[in-house]
Design the sequence.
């Protein structure tokens, strides 16, 4: 009898659910999920829950408040997995609540692993709105839920070709952590992961892509917490993935590490890191382009390389050159959130490259190179801080006329500038023979 009473109570609780018919949270079921979510062009934030789950009950007020705030911007829904399990069967739900964001490409929902308060939920959703719109404007997002396997394979190839491997992520362990992270002034984001963790696997390509985009500005690292158990204990890692933030400056310590609570996609990670850079006022690196290695390491993947050809010191002087580099640096600081890499070189040192890029006009000259698409764009008109800033803005909005990059960029080894003027040419004296 007691067992029957308990089952009846559980059934009644399940039937009641956590959200009433008047709730701003949309009730999603196995019958309406495809039509409302998968077949729509709208953005959805969805909680998969069980009515008996304590964490789900704690989340409910914040989820409702977020739904009310986001009304008309992002749809907020909930699936009761005790009654409509079929709706969530395709998403590997292993615990409650599980929260997923469905962008324009409904085949690739993203896990939300941020804080469970309404402000964090709303902030994440608004950030995702921006990133999804940017994807759509660049043609990378698809609202169709019936993508063919062929298009999926093509998309995977594009991602692999994007340079989003782990080559720019530092592998950290007990032996190098203190030296590389705590001993540097750089901003570090460090992921503690477990190889078997599903959320860690979902994060991996986003983490790798963010590391490449932030290269030279913010460092990203990873710690296998199942191997480096001592490090995991030091930083009180209790779940995977856990991301710790070490802000800019000297004097880093375990106690000053902060938890990363932003979104787990590349755009969100880059945006968060760029905010830290803005706060610290750290300038992106402007590389002196004197070897092939400098170019190959920094101009690859989904970046746009801004190459400035500065006047030869025979035609300029050290103060003018420093002024040009400072102008580039100032513009670079204002464009940290965009995937630019900056280079400068002395006109005349790379004549073959100048010919390849059709630089038949005066210097300074600025060329934008997309290594991924093998396209180039040239700054028209005179060089100035204002003109350079306008050029970068037009690049991002697609207003710059592009030409094909003909052939591979080859950099001949050149001497590094020591910051001084050239020695004046001494005229030889031939005496008074004449």
Sequence:
């Amino acid at each position: 009898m007691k067992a029957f009473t308990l089952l009846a109570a559980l059934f009644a609780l399940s039937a009641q659910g956590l959200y009433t018919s008047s709730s701003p949270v949309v009730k999603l079921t196995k019958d309406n999920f495809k039509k409302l979510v998968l077949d729509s062009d709208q953005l959805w934030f969805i909680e998969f829950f069980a009515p008996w789950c304590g964490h789900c009950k704690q989340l409910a007020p914040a989820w409702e408040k977020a739904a009310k705030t986001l009304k008309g911007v992002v749809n907020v829904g909930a699936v009761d997995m005790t009654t409509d399990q079929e709706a969530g069967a395709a998403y590997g739900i292993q615990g409650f609540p599980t929260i997923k964001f469905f962008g324009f490409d409904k085949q690739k929902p993203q896990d939300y692993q941020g804080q469970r308060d309404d402000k964090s939920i709303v902030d994440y959703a608004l950030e995702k709105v921006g990133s999804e719109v940017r994807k759509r404007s660049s043609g990378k997002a698809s609202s169709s839920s019936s993508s063919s396997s062929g298009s999926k394979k093509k998309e995977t190839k594009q991602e692999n070709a994007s340079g989003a491997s782990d080559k720019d992520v530092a592998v950290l362990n007990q032996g190098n952590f203190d030296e590389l992270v705590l001993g540097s002034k750089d901003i570090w984001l460090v992921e503690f992961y477990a190889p078997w963790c599903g959320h860690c696997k979902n994060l991996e390509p986003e983490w790798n892509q963010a590391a490449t985009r932030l290269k030279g500005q913010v460092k990203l690292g990873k710690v296998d917490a199942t191997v480096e158990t001592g490090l995991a204990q030091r930083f009180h890692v209790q779940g995977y993935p856990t991301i710790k933030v070490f802000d800019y400056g000297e004097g880093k310590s375990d106690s000053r590490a902060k938890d990363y609570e932003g979104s787990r996609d590349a755009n969100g990670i880059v945006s968060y890191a760029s905010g830290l850079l803005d706060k610290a006022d750290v300038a992106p690196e402007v590389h002196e382009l004197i070897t092939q290695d400098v170019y190959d390491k920094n101009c690859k993947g989904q970046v746009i390389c801004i190459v400035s050809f500065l006047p030869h010191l025979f035609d300029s002087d050290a103060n003018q050159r420093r002024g040009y580099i400072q102008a580039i640096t100032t513009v670079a600081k204002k464009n940290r959130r965009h995937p630019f890499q900056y280079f400068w070189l002395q006109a005349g040192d790379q004549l073959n490259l100048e010919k390849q890029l059709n630089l038949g006009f005066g210097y300074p000259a600025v060329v934008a190179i997309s290594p991924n698409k093998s396209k180039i764009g040239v700054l028209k008109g005179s060089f100035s801080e204002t003109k350079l800033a306008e050029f970068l803005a037009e690049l991002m909005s697609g207003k710059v006329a592009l030409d094909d990059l003909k052939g591979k960029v080859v950099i001949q080894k050149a001497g590094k500038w020591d910051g001084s003027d050239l020695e004046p040419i001494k005229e030889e004296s031939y005496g008074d023979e004449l």
Observations:
- The longest helix spans residues 118-137.
- Confidence is low (pLDDT under 50) at residues 1-16, 143-163.
- The chain has three domains: 15-146, 164-280, 286-404.
- The two ends are 129 Å apart (CA to CA).
